[in-house]
Amino acid sequence: MTAVAYESKASPPLDARSIHLRRLVVKALEGGGRGHIGSSLSPLEIIRVLFDDVLRYRPAEPNWPDRDRFILSKGHGCLALYVMLADKGFFPESVLSTFCKRDSILGGHPEHGKVPGVEASTGALGHGLPIAVGMALAARMQRKNHRVFCVMGDGETNEGSVWEAALCAGKHKLSNLTAIVDYNKVQSYGPTKIVLDMEPFLDKWRAFNFAAVDVDGHDVDALRRLFMKLPLDSGRPTAIICHTVKGKGLPFAEGKAEWHHKSKVTEKDVAAMYDALGGR
Amino acid sequence: MRQTAIQMVHELAKRDPRVVFLGSDLGPGILEAMRLEFPERYFMEGVSEANFIGMSAGLAMEGYIPYLNTIAPFFTRRAYEQIAVDLCLHHLPVRMLSSGGGLVYAPLGPTHLAIEDIAAMRALPNMTVVAVCDAPEMRRLMEQSLDWPDPMYIRLAKGGDPIVSDPARGFTIGKGILIREPGTVLFVTTGVMLGQAMQAADLLAESGVQCGLVHMHTIKPLDTELLGEVAADVPLVVTVEEGIRAGGLGSAVLEALSEGIAGQMPRVLRIGLPDAFPHEYGSQETMFDTYGLKGSQIAKTVSGELTSNSRSIKLTA
Predict the structure, then answer these.
(1) Which of B21, B43, B49, B51 is the best residue to mutate to test the A interface, defined by the most A CB atoms within 10 Å of its own CB?
(2) What is the CATH number of the domain that holds B221?
(3) CB–CB of A246/A185 below 8 Å?
(4) Is residue B314 part of a domain?
(5) Does the bond joining A200 to the residue before it have cis omega, within 30 degrees of 0?
(6) Which residue of B lies nearest to A135 if distances are taken between CA atoms?
(7) Is B24 part of the contact surface with chain A (CB cutoff 8 Å)?
């Protein structure tokens, strides 16, 4: 196993592409007037690197059989996925402004069959990894080379179904499966350490027979280097704990549970978010 | 019936490479022949029903037709959200072979009884709910299950259940079977209650009350066409089910009749279990006795209903 040691230190500053993607998130929030803000900004670099450098897919052919499967199990972070899918041309960028509107394809949680590129309807937590296990088994049975990636929230891993699936993935030695945790350390009520501490987190995944490492989830280069090494072990599934910051990129929202979700995003909020990102 | 269902999975697997079997820590040796012949398509997973439903969804999304087996409440109570979201919302062809339907596990107590399974499964969009009456009918169902487009909840009875079906009447998922032409009374039953209702109808016939009989093996989608046709002009419709009355077959029949499918709304008597967890053990048969589900008891209940409502129910027989 190639371990990549994570040292807690300041993430490199967000680059122009990360800022651009955050502006698209604000565009959707402005259109919808609501949304999970902090939860969509923490996994943005993870999803960006996967779609820019790792996953194989065809935007014009979302059901291409040989595509890598990507499941955003923390469906409430859907804005991160929506902006990436728009950026890659799965649907026009203008659709982002329709977020949560009556006839939009983009709801507050992503739906398979509505949004091109969304593999599974998620939102209820703890569903993505079991589905990913089934997909990874299917790929193996069909002698296919595509891989399965599943991004979960840290609070999501409170769910027992995540660990049922982890046991199963370990048992079946699913090296074509990568479980990724967006470890922003703040869940809906407050800090994960207070609500339900998952530490020692890496040890848990290792105990469930995963090759597990952690990484700075906002360090694009580090993420790229790590994802390029997958699978970390040819006989086991991989778990990657990504240390992230809830609300990353908006200083007034970073690490704040109040910015997990807002049912009303005001004009003032929108202006403040654009300001923090250096304008529209 | 359970043996037939399980063995049929192996038969279907021989015919169709999409068929896979998943169990959650079942008894030793189950489907051993399939495990040996198709080890890649046989999964015996742990006591982790949430995962095995989600996993089957992932397999179905990739083109497989998973047949799952575990004890009824561990599907319907334990993994309800997985069934709703992973199977029904995604509209996947996963088949749940649900052991111990109704009161089969009487000696094991209320944790193992499936008293509200039909109601719970019927409430889910896209779900098909089936309770056949015996092993030969299970075989006919399993033959058709391969290409059915919806997720299916297939309720299994005890095993060794009396054979009351007749191949000559045929079998089609979603189509009820008219067994006796209606008279004063029309019985509508599902699962093994068909046998009890047949006995009741015989007893009532002896006392001059002509009873029709429809076997609704498919509770959802309900065959409202047949129901509307045969319930027209019948004064008393009697539903019989091995489950709580709220939300089950009786509710489905009431809902359909209330929409006027049979013209004037008949009097509807729903025979089933009360809104309570059974508090005794014994056997499926003794519980039938406790709850009035034996043929002779059903006949008596119907007679009582006819007598007490003789002014509103015109006896035509």
Answers:
(1) B51
(2) 3.40.50.920
(3) yes
(4) no
(5) yes
(6) B58
(7) no
Token readout for A115 is 């949004």
Q: Which of B45, B61, B90 sits opposite A168 (nearest CB)?
A: B45
* Residue ranges making up the domain that contains B241: 169-308
Is the pTM of the predicted complex or chain greater than 0.90?
yes
Tens digit of each residue's pLDDT (9 = 90 or more) over B121-165: 999 999 999 999 999 999 999 999 999 999 999 999 998 999 999
Are A104 and B32 within 8 A, CB to CB? no
Last-in-domain residue among B155, B185, B214: B155
Strand locations in B9-138 (E)? 19-24, 42-45, 65-71, 95-99, 128-131
pLDDT in tens, chain A (280 residues): 444 556 677 888 999 999 999 999 999 999 999 999 999 999 999 999 999 999 999 999 999 999 999 999 999 999 999 999 999 999 999 999 999 999 999 999 999 999 999 999 999 999 999 999 999 999 999 999 999 999 999 999 999 999 999 999 999 999 999 999 999 999 999 999 999 999 999 999 999 999 999 999 999 999 999 999 999 999 999 999 999 999 999 999 999 888 889 999 999 999 999 999 999 8
| Count of structural domains within chain B | 2
Q: Is A152 on the interface with B (CB under 8 A)?
A: no
Give yes or no: residues B141 and B175 share one domain. Answer: no
Residues B104 and B237 in one domain: no
Structure tokens, A276? 């923090």
Top CATH class, A16-276: alpha beta
Dihedral sign, Cα of residue A157, residue A159, residue A160, residue A164 = negative
Tokens of residue B58, six digits: 């992932």
Inter-chain residue contact A133 with B61, CB threshold 8 Å: no
Residue B263 vs residues A100, B127, B223, B254, B305: alpha-carbon distances, Å = 43, 28, 16, 13, 22
User: Which pLDDT does position A263 carry in this prediction?
Assistant: 92
On chain B, the residues whose CB falls within 8 A of the CB of A120 are 57, 61, 90
**CB contact (8 A) between residue B51 and residue A141:** no
Phi, psi (rounded to 5 degrees) for B243: -175, 170
Domain contains B34: yes
Residues B132 and B186 in one domain: no
Whether B59 has its CB under 8 Å from any CB of chain A: the answer is yes
B76 and B22 assigned to the same domain: yes
Asked if residue B30 and residue B89 are part of one domain, the reply reads yes
Instruction: Identify any residues that bridge with A185 across adjacent strands, giving them in sequence order.
Output: none
Q: Rounded to an integer, what distance in angstroms lies between the CA atom of residue A133 and that of residue A260?
A: 28
Instruction: Give pLDDT, residue B273.
Output: 98
The residue ranges of DSSP E strands in B75-202, in sequence order, are: 95-99, 128-131, 152-155, 177-180, 185-189
Query: What ipTM does this complex have?
Result: 0.95
Answer yes or no: do B62 and A129 touch at CB < 8 A.
no
